[in-house]
Amino acid sequence: MDRLWTDFVNSDYHDWRGGDRSEDRLGKTEWQQGFLKQWQLNASVPASSEEEGALRSFRNELQALATRLSEGKPLSSKDQEWLNAKMKEGQVVRRLNAGDEGLKLSLIPAGTQWQQVMAEVAADFAITVVEGDGGRIRICDNADCRWIFYDDTRSRTQKYCDDKMCGNLMKVRRFRAKQKKDQQQE
Q1: Which residues belong to any copy of the Zinc finger CGNR domain (predicted)?
Q2: What is the pTM (predicted TM-score) of this model?
Q3: Is residue 12 included in any domain, yes or no?
Q4: Cα–Cα nearest to 115, from 183, 43, 31
Q5: DSSP per-residue letters across 63-113
């Protein structure tokens, strides 16, 4: 399941099949438009070069934080301060909505700039750590992929961002490596 923050950090794309193709989608107008639409956020597109630099720096910090949590390291007080500072940059309006399942309180982003978007991404990451478990944050075991994801399986053993893509690819690679090893031993 995609989350706002994982979708954002995974804008740093690497070819999961092992090719040389990598791209930073963060600076692409199409990616920005799709990201904002998918997550119902507002900001001017394309982001200015200054905003793009701030987005990249924020993404790098968030990737580093997710990596530390995936390694079993706890959220430090410095990490908490950083997240709090990012979340503080965005304001929300509280709105009570009636739906099929009853009343629901929604937090609607008040700003329409990339600073607000970063605050929403930081808040979603904080919610994941608080309501979920930071130890469930994973980096795909396919070294070519590097996708960051949240392991929401009951067993807490998910190794790949997608079992049908990276999981299958790695299974085939292990099989072929074993075959090659067996042939060399004959």
Answers
A1: 136-179
A2: 0.79
A3: yes
A4: 43
A5: HHHHHHHHTTPPPPHHHHHHHHHHHHT--EEEEEEEETTEEEEEEEE---S
Residue 140 lies in a domain: yes
Domain membership of residue 19 as a residue range: 4-87+116-185
CATH number at 14 reads 1.10.3300.10
Q: 134-179 pLDDT, tens per residue?
A: 778 888 877 777 778 888 878 776 666 666 666 555 566 565 666 6
Which of helix, strand or coil describes residue 162? coil
Q: Would you call the peptide bond into 74 cis, given omega within 30 degrees of 0 as the criterion?
A: no
Residue 107 lies in a domain: no
The structural domain count of the chain equals 1
Who contacts 9 (Cβ-Cβ below 8 Å, separation ≥6)?
A: 59, 62, 63, 66, 148
d(CA 173, CA 17): 11
Biggest CA–CA distance in the chain, Å, is 71
Closest CA to 79 of 104, 59, 62, 101: 62
Label residue 156 left, alpha or beta by phi (over 0 means left) and psi (-120 to 50 means alpha).
left
Q: Which amino acid is at 83?
A: L
pLDDT single digits (tens) 54-101: 999 999 999 999 999 989 898 999 999 999 999 999 988 888 988 888
Decide if 13 is inside a domain. yes
